[in-house]
Amino acid sequence: LLEGWRRLGLPETNTGVVVAVSGGADSSALLLALDELIRKKKLALSLTVAHFDHGLRGATSKEDARWVKALATRLGYRIALGRANVRMRAAKLRDNLEQAARLARYSFLARTANRLPARLVLTAHTMDDQAETVLLNLVRGSGTDGLGGIDPVRSLDGKGKVLLARPLLSWARRAETETYCRTLGVEFRIDAMNADESFARVRIRRKLLPLMQTFNVKIVEALARTAGLLRDDRSALAGATEVLLEAAREAAEAADRENVPPGLRTDLLAIAPAAVRRRALRHWIAQGRGDLRRIELVHILAVESLLSGTRGGRVIELPGGSLVSRTRGCLRFHRRPARPPERDR
Amino acid sequence: LLEGWRRLGLPETNTGVVVAVSGGADSSALLLALDELIRKKKLALSLTVAHFDHGLRGATSKEDARWVKALATRLGYRIALGRANVRMRAAKLRDNLEQAARLARYSFLARTANRLPARLVLTAHTMDDQAETVLLNLVRGSGTDGLGGIDPVRSLDGKGKVLLARPLLSWARRAETETYCRTLGVEFRIDAMNADESFARVRIRRKLLPLMQTFNVKIVEALARTAGLLRDDRSALAGATEVLLEAAREAAEAADRENVPPGLRTDLLAIAPAAVRRRALRHWIAQGRGDLRRIELVHILAVESLLSGTRGGRVIELPGGSLVSRTRGCLRFHRRPARPPERDR
Predict the structure, then answer these.
(1) pLDDT beyond 60 at B343
(2) Looking at residue A249, what DSSP letter applies?
């Protein structure tokens, strides 16, 4: 863990850290290993255990919370407990349950970190989680961005003041976390949902990965390696995208007035590599709309099609009603005509 | 097919074309469809049918060749037949059988195109082949380069004088080629090796893809889409790699004298994104050694490690004995001391 910690460049002293603990083997092992490193004075962290009750499993959820609280107390750490009715939220946002649970959990972790305050939030994702995420995104037809999988370190608040890090991701296997807990005599909790094959992730774990292992016994390592290579690609392409956007932005006065992103010069977009151009368009559209909800590859390609041909005057409508036009050598973003604000996103 | 043809920007008139026909459904369908387009005067191609007998299946191989010859003759096209003992070649080059068969086949196609001469060679790879290739490379732990799968168009001779194109790749399904042949009353040949599960590709087709289809009924389309996105990324990164290599090359006189690639400036390599830097190093090493045989990611990372730290003087040995050192702010390539030339590659 200490090696993985250093590889990610995480701070070793004087740092407030929130560690997310569900009570399962992975997160219990992370907590126990951090505790070991703190007691051995290898790390000097001010640690808070955070547990989020998604309210999905009734009495079991409550027992998990009690169990985590008892473990944290026994080890001598503060505990932050959060709860939400994720099923209701999912219904309200028309999101799937896993997505809603994730959003609620990370928002709780971010609030907890801000309140303490703590600079670092840790989750116990393992290499197995990484492999499953890569495959989940693959069966959905993701590109580089999805296939890069889980980030080892990213900003949790979008401002970089709170970092989210996964110190187990690049090396620890799920089975190892179970063995480690057992060695320390800690009877981790077992989440019944991990056996519910109505979740795609569970079927990936129980069916797809074992079959892929017949092709390559080190399939989990291979998928994690692929994800790492693709994250490197993604970061190189993100750099190129920024350079392109910077260069292609026209003087921004008009755009400032209308509160839309500045127009983009079509000549510079046209000569950029497709992969960089499309990323730049996605980024620009996100700026204009506020988000990328319901924006698919087909919309990016439609906007890109404005660049070809010599005549201007064509207009592309995006989901939600905003428009992109091409005039005077620039792509321009137009918010959709004002309507009741609650329908605006 | 005509739509796919135009999307690839292939020439529609006055072009010598070699179409590779094994006698299976895919390649028979491609030949029949080209014939239809030629007869309807949609394409004006001078078409030669090429069939390669890999000598792997004894009497059946010979029957396949006779069958393809009969079909070509009936349609009124020239036929070029080639053969090789691929099993022997594979043993000699210590290559696997599929790899050796592929090399022998493409070398035959290139020779045929050069002899005629023809500018364009076509193979009948379908979207199913693309999905299988992506998964084969995935289980091996490939990065972007492997996951991009089969190229729709590439140079066959490395000089761009003969193009290799796959006009079915982005849209045709294998089952459709079978239906098309049957509709035209053509009883395509069935390759018994397509049922031999000792080949990873066959197990991918028969086991892995059907399981993945339970996650996404359009899995083949999804994988083909992913491959397309990754090929776009690859090509953007290749462009950035060229720019970096161009900038980082030092004056080449010394290198010219020793017949090795010019040194690369460490300061410029160090500030490039990792994905671009590693591609540049791979390319430079390939130039120095003549090929990338036995070069793995670990070797690229070892050479990259020369860039960190302030002291020079360290040396990395590559498989085959060539060396990379860091001196006076440059990485330098050194061929290994002369030994009998037949061992040099």
Answers:
(1) no
(2) B
> Closest to A233 (Cβ–Cβ): which among B200, B218, B275?
B275
- CA-to-CA dists, residue A199 to A61, A128, B19, angstroms: 18, 16, 46
Inter-chain touch B208–A212, beta carbons under 8 Å? yes
B window 134-163, beta carbon within 8 A of A: 138-144, 147
By CA distance, what is A235's nearest residue in B?
A: B273
Residue B328 burial (10 A CB sphere; 0-12, 13-18, 19+): exposed
> Minimum mean pLDDT among A109-123, B243-257, B282-296, B315-329: which range?
B243-257
Nearest chain B residue (CA) to A274:
B232
Per-residue confidence band for A91, with pLDDT thresholds at 50, 70 and 90 = confident
Most confident of A85-99, A159-173, B304-318: A159-173
Q: Does A209 touch chain B (CB under 8 A)?
A: no
Nearest to A230 among B143, B204, B214 (CB): B143
Could you give the CA distance from residue B123 to residue B109 in angstroms, rounded to a whole number? 10
B237 at the A interface (CB within 8 A)? yes
Residue among B141, B222, B233 minimizing CB distance to A237: B233
B309 neighbors B273 (Cβ within 8 angstroms): no
Mean pLDDT computed over A162-177: 96
Distance of alpha carbon A238 from alpha carbon A233, whole angstroms: 8
CA gap A322, A340 in Å, rounded: 14
Kindly report, residue by residue over B37-59, the tens digit of the pLDDT: 999 999 999 999 999 998 777 77
By CA distance, what is A210's nearest residue in B? B208
Nearest CA in chain B to A221: B141
Q: In what order do the strands lie in the sheet with B323-327?
A: B264-265, B330-334, B323-327, B315-317
Size of interface A-B (CB pairs under 8 A): 119
Q: Count CA within 13 A, CB hemisphere, residue A256.
A: 4
Smallest Cα–Cα separation from A202: which of A148, A128, A261, A264? A128
A273 Cβ under 8 Å from any chain B Cβ: yes
**A230 and B276: CB-CB below 8 Å?**
no
Give the whole-angstrom CA distance, residue A310 versus residue A329: 10
Amino acid letter, residue A41: K
Q: SS3 of B207, please?
A: helix
Tokens of A138: 């693959």
Chain B closest-CA separation from residue A226 CA (Å): 5
Q: What is the full DSSP assignment across A58-121?
A: HHHHHHHHHHHHHHHHHHT-EEEEEE--HHHHHHHHT--HHHHHHHHHHHHHHHHHHHTT-SEE
Q: Does A290 touch chain B (CB under 8 A)?
A: no
Distance CA A224, CA A230 (A): 10
* Whole-number pLDDT of residue A345: 43
Cβ of B275 within 8 Å of Cβ of A200? The answer is no
CB burial string B73-103: b at 16+ within 10 A, e below? eebebebbbbebebeebbeeeeeebeebbeb
Q: Mean pLDDT throughout A290-309?
A: 89
Tell me the average pLDDT across A125-140.
95
CB contact under 8 A, A223 and B138: yes
pLDDT in tens, B13-27: 989 999 999 999 999
